[in-house]
Design a protein that fits this description.
The chain is α/β, with parallel strands linked by helices. The chain is built from 21 helices and 19 strands. The two termini are about 40 Å apart.
């Protein structure tokens, strides 16, 4: 695994500090129930089935549902640091054993974060402490005092817990991040990329070629860095255990989505992987997303227009945005923001998920933003059905179309131009519409555009294109390839910060944190994730077709966040 940034930093700063982190939680003196401890850790629910209570900042009363352990210490138990608040690891290996501080685990917090002076004063203090026992953990949770007698930061809640609560929590903490996750051997780390049966072959080829060249690049760095591992023991020997050769497995699916789960199970059984990176699926990601969640397998930034619904649920698939439902909601908000509201809106949609999902999202949002506007929703089947639906409309309506087959729909619209003065289409219609629409029809048409404006400046985009150029990689599908590179960057940085803690939850948490940094490849205006968030871009523009422009479109609205 490459450590270019890591080794460059360590050359400058060295390892001058031996540090020990202060704990948050510990164990009690009776046998605990790990499953009840999980419920306390995740939901703040005590052994009696009721929310636990406590105080924070000295006198602010809280409940466990407001301040559960997972909010700060994260699903992995490795904690985090942000805004000067350092939340240390509380996995059993750290909490219940007295051992030499693991400087590698603190590297991300010490040397990769921009923090105020108060943070450095706290985290660099040599606060040596003994291992926790039952009594010390109970004291820490209730009184806010660690095993060595140091008082916790006021932000750390002081909880009102029973002995059973403490014992249950202790039992659960001992299960956190105890074994390296599947897909990792002493020499290799395995990844998959998942391609659906209806994916465009040219797009899939461009994506896979980008992945292959990135893997080749990473492995050459690994080979060079490990050829002479003791050359500079002050930094390299500390991290030699983290290096792995990356291995890519292309999981090509076939048949209908209801058969995908069995195919994925068979491929995973044949070769477990640590994560899925990028990927390309036409239609819903649901079957794959369910597999990723059940296997606790990070699926990092697949290319899909229908991500699995649900934000803030700690799913294991991380997406660029919410796809077609986001476009639908943004369009409804746009119509609601106009000086004069439309008197009548008609949406026509295909009967498959590419049509039904955005149509539902559009109708729901219209009900909030324009409750007095008449909305008619009509489904169609095939080209003839769409032609009939278009012909059966009056000119005084605003027309919204969510096709199941975009190219087919664009061809029908071009052959039988609707009378409406304004027609809205999803972003996927751009290239087809530019090819067949008349100038008059282009002037009538608007697109919902969830990507960046043309001409926006993203320094990293130019670096990525330079990387592709030096490897003679044809940039035939820029958005797919740039998004694929971003997914690769995120897993690279996640592993770099995790060092040799190959725990999927931990790497996923680092990716959430790292997405806030300036790694945008230029595909979206902003990309960022908070704890538990799974959609990095939150809005869309409205654009018009502009064949005279190099990119073929022009943004005509502000950024719309539904």
């Amino acid at each position: 695994m490459s450590r270019r940034r890591l080794t460059a930093i360590m050359r400058r700063i060295g390892f001058a500090l031996a540090l020990v982190s202060a704990p948050f939680c510990a164990t009690a003196g009776q046998a605990g129930d790990a499953e009840l401890g999980r419920k306390l850790y995740w939901d703040g629910i005590g052994a009696d089935g009721q929310p636990i209570t406590g105080i924070t900042q000295g006198d602010v009363k809280i409940s466990g549902t407001q301040f559960s352990c997972v909010n700060c210490h994260r699903p992995s138990g490795f904690g985090t640091s942000e805004g000067g608040n350092y939340v240390p690891p509380i996995i059993g290996e750290v909490l219940f054993e007295k051992k030499t501080p693991n400087r590698n685990r603190m590297f991300k917090d010490l040397y990769q974060e921009v923090q105020p002076p108060g943070f450095w004063a706290r985290v660099r203090s040599p606060r040596m402490r003994p291992a926790y026992d039952d009594e010390l953990l109970a004291r820490a949770l209730s009184d806010g005092v660690d095993a060595a007698g140091h008082e916790f930061d006021p932000i750390m809640p002081r909880y009102d817990l029973t002995a059973a609560d403490v014992a249950n929590l202790s039992a659960f903490l001992k299960t956190l991040s105890t074994e390296i996750d599947p897909g990792v051997t002493g020499r290799e780390i395995h990844f998959a990329t998942i391609i659906g049966p209806d994916a465009d072959p040219a797009e899939a080829d461009a994506m896979v070629r980008t992945l292959e060249l990135f893997f080749e690049w990473m492995n050459k760095d690994t080979e060079g860095d490990t050829r002479n591992p003791t050359f500079s023991p002050n930094y390299r020997s500390n991290f030699i255990s983290a290096y792995r050769y990356w291995r890519l497995h292309v999981w090509q699916l076939d048949g209908p989505p209801e058969t995908w789960r069995d195919q994925l199970e068979a491929k995973y059984a044949d070769q477990p992987v640590f994560a899925s990176v990028s990927g390309l699926v036409e239609g819903p990601w649901d079957a794959i997303g369910g597999f990723c969640d059940d296997k606790r397998l990070p699926c990092i930034f697949p290319n899909t227009e229908l991500p699995t619904p649900g934000e803030g649920r700690y799913g294991y698939s991380v997406y660029f945005n919410r796809g077609l439902p986001l476009e639908a909601e943004a369009l409804a908000v746009h119509l609601g923001d106009q000086p004069t509201a439309p008197t009548r809106v008609v949406q026509i949609h295909g009967t498959g998920p590419q049509g039904t999902r955005p149509s539902r999202a559009f109708a729901e949002t219209m009900g909030f933003v324009l409750p007095d506007t008449a909305l008619e929703t009509r489904a169609y089947e095939g080209a003839d059905g769409l032609a009939a639906a278009l012909a059966d409309q009056s000119a005084d309506t605003t027309l919204v179309i969510w096709p199941q087959d975009v190219e087919e729909a664009v061809a029908v619209i071009a052959d039988s131009p609707p009378a409406q003065t304004r027609i809205f289409l999803p972003s996927a219609a751009k290239d087809s519409a530019l090819g067949v629409f008349s100038p008059e029809l282009m002037a009538q048409t608007r697109l919902v555009w969830p990507y960046d404006k043309p001409g926006s400046y993203h320094p990293r985009k130019y670096r990525i294109r330079g990387w592709m150029h030096t490897r003679r990689l044809e940039v035939s599908h820029p958005r797919i390839q740039l998004q694929t590179y971003y997914a690769l960057t995120m897993i690279e940085f996640g592993l770099m910060h995790a060092i040799d803690d190959f725990y999927r939850d931990y790497v996923l948490e680092i990716i959430e944190h790292e997405a806030e940094n300036e790694l945008n490849p230029g595909t979206h205006p902003e990309l960022g994730l908070g704890p538990g968030q799974r959609f990095a871009s939150k809005g869309a523009f409205i654009a018009e077709l502009a064949p005279e422009e190099r990119v073929g479109y022009r943004v005509v609205s502000e950024w719309i966040v539904p």
